[in-house]
Amino acid sequence: MHAYIHLDQERFLDWLTACLAETDLAGIREAVALFQREVKVLPVNGAEEGSGLSFRQDVLLEELQQVAESRTLRRARYYLERLRRSVVEVRTGEVNDINLNRWKEYDDVLTDSLWLMERRDTSGAHGAWYWGNFVPQIPHQLLLRYTRAGDWVLDPFVGSGTTLIECRRLGRNGVGLELNPEVAARATDAVMQEPNPMDVVTDIVVGDSTSLDFAATLAGYGVERVHFALLHPPYHDIINFDGGPRDLSNAPTVDDFLSQFSQVVARTLALLEPGRYFAVVIGDKYQAGAWIPLGFYTMQAVMAQGATLKSIVVKNFEKTKAKRAQEALWRYRALVGGFYLFKHEYIFLFQA
Ligand SMILES: C[S@@+](CC[C@H](N)C(=O)[O-])C[C@H]1O[C@@H](n2cnc3c(N)ncnc32)[C@H](O)[C@@H]1O
Predict the structure, then answer these.
(1) Domain coordinates of the chain in residue numbers?
(2) CATH number of 114-351
């Protein structure tokens, strides 16, 4: 957990004004050194004081150090001015709540295309009861970057409700669709266990995402468009989700799977606010001795509908106990069969 300190905003701004008024670098350095000492001993993670100005201690110290190490008065003033802006002005992007004037405080938000996650987040209502759920860190990261508080999120393959739990945590309204009524009921129970501090809507509807009237469901909430969608379909028949003929995991062929998946994409795109983002999480499969690139097939199916591909993220599979037990055997099979073992899946990010 990061250490946050609280400052009196007025005093801090006065201090910055005084620094900016200094006419030589030595004066600024002296003032900064004194202030750095003060910041280092302030109590961390305490209750907020009146002005509500909080800073991540390490980030503020780094900013101050940058001022202190400036080689010219002009540069020092530039950094001080930037620090002042980070206090008096909030600058967010169009699709999230990240304050770009305090961007250094968001180092938990990923920006690289390789996600190595060793441990599944099992906090709160997140459980491991559903075989085929993704790690909560996937929706968590995507919601932080592509949604704002109060936005509407659609998950057409809701499964155990991982995305909706994250929606509640982050204050996003979430609507999920699930074909299997038993899974939907269990997911609803689980998701509702998660506290809802921002009083958002969470709903799981039982139905087939290739044909269900999403628009009517949303209209029930007075909503016409969603702001983000997260699609985590079955990886064709790798796991059978037992939902009957409309279940994508029961599609007789890869082409059938892609055709059903494309229908869900079309329906999702029809509801997504133009310019907003959506993501598809999927892995590849092996069939009759050949690697079937389901990931790239689904990616192309989405692009064929006019969405812009923004990123391809590769994420490692975390090792489950069962996988660990069979690791040696699979390694042997890979050596014999001349193939590589799946250790990754994809997160394809698109903009509508
Ligand atoms: C990979 S799982 C999603 C897991 C989910 N992200 C989680 O973390 O629990 C895919 C889900 O899609 C559901 N599904 C399959 N075909 C469907 C369809 N036509 N409409 C709606 N849901 C479907 C399956 O029952 C399964 O729960």
Answers:
(1) 4-89, 114-351
(2) 3.40.50.150
